[in-house]
Amino acid sequence: MSNGKTLKKFISISFQISPSYFFLLVFQSIMETGQILVNVILPKYLVDELVGGRDKANLIRFGLYIVLANVAFLFFNKTMKRFMDVRNIYMKEKLNQAMADKIMKVEFACLEDPYYLDLKERAVFACRTMSALENLIGSVARVLKNAVTIISLLVVMFTLSPVFVLILVLTISISIIAQKLFSKYQLEIYQELIPINRRYGYYVGLAFEGKYQKDIRVYNMNRMLTDRVLDYSRQIYDWFKGFTKKQGLFQGFVGVINDLQAAIAYGYVGIRVISDKFGGKIGIGSFTMYVSAAISFTTSATDLGKNIMTVIQMLGYLQPFMEFMSLPDEAKREGSVPFEGAVESLRFENVSFHYPKSENYVLKGISFEIKKGEKISIVGLNGAGKSTIVKLLCRLYKPASGTIYINGRDIYEYEFSSYMKCLAAVFQDYKLFAFSILENIKGGEASEEDSIQRQRVENLLEQVGLKEKIAELKKGVDTLFGKQYDPEGIEMSGGQSQKVAIARALYKEASLIILDEPTSALDPLAEAEIYEHFNQLVGDKTAIYISHRMSSSVFCDKILVLDGGIIADFDSHKKLMEKEEGMYYKLFKSQAANYQV
Amino acid sequence: MSNGKTLKKFISISFQISPSYFFLLVFQSIMETGQILVNVILPKYLVDELVGGRDKANLIRFGLYIVLANVAFLFFNKTMKRFMDVRNIYMKEKLNQAMADKIMKVEFACLEDPYYLDLKERAVFACRTMSALENLIGSVARVLKNAVTIISLLVVMFTLSPVFVLILVLTISISIIAQKLFSKYQLEIYQELIPINRRYGYYVGLAFEGKYQKDIRVYNMNRMLTDRVLDYSRQIYDWFKGFTKKQGLFQGFVGVINDLQAAIAYGYVGIRVISDKFGGKIGIGSFTMYVSAAISFTTSATDLGKNIMTVIQMLGYLQPFMEFMSLPDEAKREGSVPFEGAVESLRFENVSFHYPKSENYVLKGISFEIKKGEKISIVGLNGAGKSTIVKLLCRLYKPASGTIYINGRDIYEYEFSSYMKCLAAVFQDYKLFAFSILENIKGGEASEEDSIQRQRVENLLEQVGLKEKIAELKKGVDTLFGKQYDPEGIEMSGGQSQKVAIARALYKEASLIILDEPTSALDPLAEAEIYEHFNQLVGDKTAIYISHRMSSSVFCDKILVLDGGIIADFDSHKKLMEKEEGMYYKLFKSQAANYQV
Q1: Which end of chain B has the least Cβ crowding within 10 Å, N or C?
Q2: What ipTM was predicted for this assembly?
Q3: Chain B touched by A543 (CB under 8 Å)
Q4: Which tens digit of pLDDT belongs to each residue from A354-381?
Q5: Into which CATH architecture does domain B431-509 fall?
Q6: Burial class, B450, CB count within 10 angstroms (exposed 0-12 / middle 13-18 / buried 19+)
Q7: Angle at which helices B284-325 and B56-105 pack, to 10 degrees?
Q8: Of A221, A237, A504, the CB nearest to B433
Q9: Please, which residues 117-176 of chain A have a Cβ atom closer than 8 Å to chain B?
């Protein structure tokens, strides 16, 4: 996206949020210019009166004008600023919300693709760290103000002499060109710094991070890390030394040019006071006025250059944001048929999957069918494609080819949110949120009455074996999960959290339930308890389990054996154990061997 | 720690890093004041000449003085600034390094205690986000500069009239008092904002985080999260509205006071031009000089107030840093006896442990002994205290009471780094680093020749079953672990990473090896393979295993059965299986039940 397009899109978004905003910005610019003009023009009369008539009444009058005008402008500008500050906060939060909303709705595959992940990171960086929008609005406003000020001052100086204006514009052009060249250099040289900074940040971050400290101590990684940090820090230091040298030269040059401009202004206006060679003589008051006009002009022109650079820079930061915002939403993708009733049948037909940018197939044309109420276990080696099946079912991944049918219809034909209601999943890396335990379990489903919800949540907590733990808590199920910001929140062990996640999946009353390594963090007794209650917990729902603990397969009606992305077998435990050459037999035996008493 | 103490400590630290730094700061302040003075005093002569003699040679001479002086100051100040900028980068990095170093060396217990964790977070925040040190140095320098400028300008204005100075000082005092009151109000009102901001940040962060998106989609948490974000964002918005209102009033007041000061300056100096009521008449040149002195004085005084506030604020930010830096180091804690040879015996004697701020004992007076070469398994329910034993052995936690003896000596009597050489541990939540695979495995031990190291690493990789995987890589063992900043790095699955972590522990050639859930992420075949090779891998080392997979106990010489922080049993698998009422029997049976073919 070009800068122009980004700016246009940004303006249109801002307009939508607050249409009056841009008019106010223009108005504010005019008023700020007004203050500058008053302080350029009014003192002329005061000085003229001081040098000339020295009439006390006049002196007091002009003095008063200056003071009152400044107070009025001050009041107005501060009020505007306050108004704008509040508006900026509002805009910034709206932007954050838009971004958060987009991330929660964008096609999930984008969140696992390095390209889009990087885009997301840069967009988040722009929103959160750089406050790119705030800075952009501020800079656009300042560009506007600078432009209005420059035009007004040009008019003032033009009354003295067009040649004077021309000379000033010329010298200013030099510093603006210098600024532009330096900006270009800066952009290029910063590219060198970015990877160094990233690595430096990574290693310092490692050292700052608590969870790495055990391994750092036991494996004596301290010095290795410090060496990296020192190495990158030396590189950064050297970069800065080089950069500030160039920057010093540039700033020195611009400084000399600015002083030259001031000298020209003082010189030319001074000559006009003492001689009429270049036009009619002017008074000391006019001298003050033109000199301060010229100086304000220089300041504004330099400022304009800087602000334009900032606008360009902020547009650059905002580009990833704009690009991310225009990615397609999950829910919008295909499907309008509302999903109704229960999962009666589930069928994979020749389904293949590979990651977008990869050519390695994770699943290669797999086909199988599950009937209502069946309990299926998926087993296989690490990397066989087990979790991919879960993600495909949850519409987190889309098949590269083939079709998944539920109740005889391609799952992508169903409307997204009604489809999501038919299934519940406990992922291997499930997450709970800093909501109350009650809220975590009932999730976004809130169709029932509060008291019924509570009753159901409490029943489920009892079933997964957390009743006593919750009863200990002062606030019961209303206790916040985690201590992120509430010291009264509850920190749970891996096993306890896993139980809450299982309760959450069961609460959903989905007719298809998927459990990926649901007991990996549980001790043998808790594990046995969960398995014992599984059939009771899951009831007549269709269920898919994934577990490295082969014993869990014994409970299941059928076992889907995956081997390198294809189906090696799909049968009952009993039948599979008869095939002594089969993968399943091998897996089961290898674990069972040491349990023979 | 008081602000004064923090400032003192900060100055002493800075002095250590670069003694010349502060002298340069003072010198810089004097020079910057010089520039202000030149621009206050020199124009007087120019204006006087313009109004009076209008001698061209004089005019050019004064004009030239002004320009040359400014160019000289510009050059000098820019050079100084450049020098200081580079120095600031240096100081900032040193601070980062000091912080990183401290975190890596501080007593581990501090990193699990919420109080110290919070302190660490605030210290890191000060270093990284606020650049507190940079800002502090900058502000201290500006305070210095302001002070020197103010004194010089007072001297200049004193030549006009002490009364004039008095009036200015009075009006300035009013705005400084207002500033101070407002700062106090601001500090208080910000306290209200902090918890809101923290929660807002937490929920926005959740929405931004990729790893939460699966659960957000499946459990329809989207709206719940958005509601939280909107709720907190409304609170922030309201807060800002209220705050900017007060701020507007304050700034308006200060603005009026500033205008009043300018009016007084212009008025008083103007009167001195036209009348001799308050002393001898002065010329227009002097008028210019005194007015610009008064205005510079006002600016500097306001600036001084602001900078002092910033210094206080930055000291506040730096306090957690200073406090964290003064925590005791792990290595310094007791012990100077170098650990030599192998672990011959290991004995826990009446060891108890509870977390510093808790009264619940995790371990209650446990005693047991392990002999050289024994393989011990620790089993028990979640929360029984298994991992705590590991952390105590690694000196990550210190017993609340009781003693751990290795080779007959309290482990805290040994010198830290030599002690850490005697053991290797694979933690449940082990971490690998963005170093090469080779570097990850050999860790900080680098006593051997490079080729021998490589050979050993490659042998170990073969033993843990990663030989083929590594052989596929272009750079082999020199491949970077992870893709954090190198697209050529390798992302490993949980199982593969765990194998690398096991290789790392074995590389260490420690005589005591501890494995906490070492195969939890491995599939049944990989698990069986690791177990099969364990005795071969571990050799004659003393070994402690923790695993929820009871089958791993079968390999062990003895099993330590923990139940609620006390030792329920400590015997061989065979003996323990004879006690049908025992915990171990129950645990083993519950898992074995489903493996009976």
Answers
A1: C
A2: 0.81
A3: no
A4: 877 778 899 999 999 999 999 999 999 8
A5: 3-Layer(aba) Sandwich (3.40)
A6: exposed
A7: 10
A8: A221
A9: 117, 120, 124
